[in-house]
Amino acid sequence: IADPTLAEMGKNLKEAVKMLEDSQRRTEEENGKKLISRDIPGPLQGRIQNIGEQGHVALLGHSLGAYISTLDKEKLRKLTTRILSDTTLCLCRIFRYENGCAYFHEEEREGLAKICRLAIHSRYEDFVVDGFSVLYNKKPVIYLSAAARPGLGQYLCNQLGLPFPCLCRVPCNTMFGSQHQMDVAFLEKLIKDDIERGRLPLLLVANAGTAAVGHTDKIGRLKELCEQYGIWLHVEGVNLATLALGYVSSSVLAAAKCDSMTMTPGPWLGLPAVPAVTLYKHDDPALTLVAGLTSNKPTDKLRALPLWLSLQYLGLDGFVERIKHACQLSQRLQESLKKVNYIKILVEDELSSPVVVFRFFQELPGSDPVFKAVPVPNMTPSAVGRERHSCDALNRWLGEQLKQLVPAGGLTVMDLEAEGTCLRFSPLMTAAVLGTRGEDVDQLVACIESKLPVLCCTLQLREEFKQEVEATAGLLYVDDPNWPGIGVVRYEHANDDKSSLKSDPEGEKIHAGLLKKLNELESDLTFKIGPEYKSMKSCLYVGMASDDVDAAELVETIVATAREIEENSRLLENMTEVVRKGIQEAQVELQKASEERLLEEGVLRQIPVVGSVLNWFSPVQALQKGRTFNLTAGSLESTEPIYVYKAQGAGVTLPPTPSGSRTKQRLPGQKPFKRSLRGSDALSETSSVSHIEDLEKVERLSGGLEQITLEASSTEGHPGAPSPQHTDQTEAFQKGVPHPEDDHPQVEGPESLR
After folding, report:
1. Distance of CA 316 to the CA centre of its chain
2. CA of 259: how far to CAs of 119, 223, 236, 404, 550, in Å?
3. What segments bear the compositional bias annotation Basic and acidic residues (predicted)?
């Protein structure tokens, strides 16, 4: 460096970098883990991310700029001019933008606003003199793509003082090409219509990588159209970074011929506090000065200092290597996802876009027997819409799971109008900060493959679960588009007000007990309760399924358990009233019994001394009378039979306990809500056949015993009754003892078979 000031600054910069390296070495502990030696005190303590050496260099540029601003004017002018020109020349060389100028700005959209001012001054020669009256006579039109980032048009109108009718939103392709690319034919029609109405087509904003999915417009065709009608062409997007690579697609390479472009090298390189850059081509320095793209203040030129220092630290090869690494990560993920079933990649221009957008889709091909979709009969259009919402919820769940399992992947979840919920992988914006490597991409693909069985199984069971719930009395299916599980159901109790949207305390109590009962079953499903979608009533949310689930058994268990809880709850509520009435009735009867005993014994026996003498000479033989309360019948009964049985030494025989309904037979180790494993490969041939045969023997044996017992009881004492020998055979068969004349082997009892 010839300038002595620059030479001295370079020397100080080397010393600063050396101090940073020494500081990092001192912060290494014995276990090799790096810590910050001197943390910033206050609320920022422990919250600043590790930005690395290049990040410290970029931050050093802001402090160094403050020191440089204290130089004398002549040295400051020379130094800032040299920094600005070197940075501009380096960027134009990297991104193939010949004979360009650079404007550095903090706000990313600020550069486009300055370009619009330059276009207005270029097309309206009398604008400086006449002002907005010139615009009134011939209104300017700014064309934006429908896929542009939100709020860009409103920002431009606010900065330029233009009304909103000056904006023209160009739709994207609907018939051919990408649905996120600008429709060139329709744009040409809009331009012709505006010219016929006396308007002036001023500027067109094209995308080299849309904000949503990273699609690139047909910039070459747009450039020809802009040259034909004298329109300024401005390009922005993340795909402009690929101009620094050796191979660039034709659509992105055409952006090097545009009138201006805006880039954000800070996120691309993982550098904090690095300004955005707008490269433009214009020959009139006076107009660029009026538009604000250039400045005579040396301090404004110092905005390029952080980027200049970063370029000096990384070098040209290091700068390009960062961009190349990010593009390689995206291509690696694309190639891996092409081999994964049920994952659809939405980015069509795969070679030029470093952005990967994909989603789990609902059309399950029947080629794979593991995830073969269960066909649902009579699929209505409304059901298809529900499947779309179901896939959106599943993709949101998948995105949250992947962000937790692979935080270095930098995935984001977004909603697109046509495709629905998708996942976006943009390493150009996140890899430098998160330190994403190829191993992280492989781990991301492995996690996606591990979650596919859960997604496919849950999607197959949703419609079946809905049909079972709608066919069951007492259950209401709740359509919640944000729930990724099998479904949401609400139990309608007797006092449920269906028209009200307020919270229901009785329903919340029933659902809380239902949740507890279902969790005690130890099934693979997860359950939780929460407010209903669009209301405050409590509902039961059934989680995702990792295996085939019997929806009919699941719904039957839910409604049976809820009814049992409701009946028990009613019994407990009525118990208080029944007990209170029983106590009052018992008090009345005991009072009557006391009065009867008083009349029977006489008045003399109530006198203390006289009563004792009479009781000694003539004792009263009176039975103890009391009352017992039957909770089942809700009635009072006398305790006299109890005392009689007590005196005779005979206990009260308890009524037989009623047996519950017959439960579904399950194989050993089979969890609740699982479908029958007959013919399944989950069990081995010997184990599955033996267990199934044992269950069938139990069923046949139980049915045979009941039939024999009924026949024996019905034929006793009638003509044609069996002989004693036949009776003995029946008893022997019931006891499991073979008859001497029977050649068949002994059959084990039901308990032994179980």
Report:
1. 41
2. 10, 9, 11, 43, 64
3. 691-700, 738-754
Query: Average pLDDT, stretch 218-226?
Result: 94
The reported pLDDT for the residue numbered 66 is 82
pTM for the predicted model, two decimal places: 0.70
Residue recorded with tokens 């002994």: 746
pLDDT recorded at residue 144? 95
- Single-letter residue type at 283: D
The tally of domains found in the chain comes to: 2
The rounded distance, in Å, linking the Cα atoms of 232 and 143 is 10
Range of the domain at 539: 472-568
DSSP character string of 69-91: TTS-HHHHHHHHHHHHHHHHHHH
> What are the DSSP calls for 161-184, one per residue?
T--GGGEEEEPB-SSSS-TTSB-H
Cβ atoms within 10 Å of 209's Cβ, excluding its own: 28
User: For residue 120, what pLDDT is reported?
Assistant: 94
CATH number of the CATH domain containing 502? 3.90.1150
Residues 264-316 pLDDT 10s: 998 898 888 889 999 999 989 999 999 999 988 888 888 999 899 888 888 88
Per-residue three-class SS string for 272-325? CCCCEEEEECCCCHHHHHHHCCCCCCHHHHHHHHHHHHHHHHHHHHHHHHHHHH
345 shares a domain with 421: yes
Long-range contacts of 120-123 (CB under 8 A, 24+ apart): 120/160, 120/202, 121/287, 121/290, 121/291, 122/232, 122/282, 122/284, 122/287, 123/200, 123/202, 123/230
User: 68: part of which helix (H) or strand (E)?
Assistant: helix 52-68
Cβ neighbours of residue 638 under 8 Å, at least 6 residues apart? Answer: 625, 626, 627, 628
Within a domain: 241:
no
Contact yes or no for 127/121 (Cβ under 8 A): yes
445 and 486 within one domain: no
Q: What is the pLDDT of residues 80-99, one digit of tens each?
A: 999 999 999 999 999 999 99
**More confidently predicted of 14 and 752:** 14
Report CA 493 to chain centroid distance, whole Å: 31
User: How many other CB atoms are there within 10 angstroms of residue 220's CB atom?
Assistant: 14
Residue 728 lies in a domain: no
Residues in a beta bridge with 477: 489
Are 528 and 406 contained in the same domain?
no
Query: Strand order of the sheet with strand 232-236?
Result: 101-105, 276-280, 260-263, 232-236, 200-207, 140-145, 167-170
More confident residue, 641 or 212: 212
**CA 97/CA 209 separation, integer angstroms:** 18
Q: Helix, strand or coil for residue 674?
A: strand
The answer to whether 408 and 380 have CB atoms below 8 angstroms apart is no
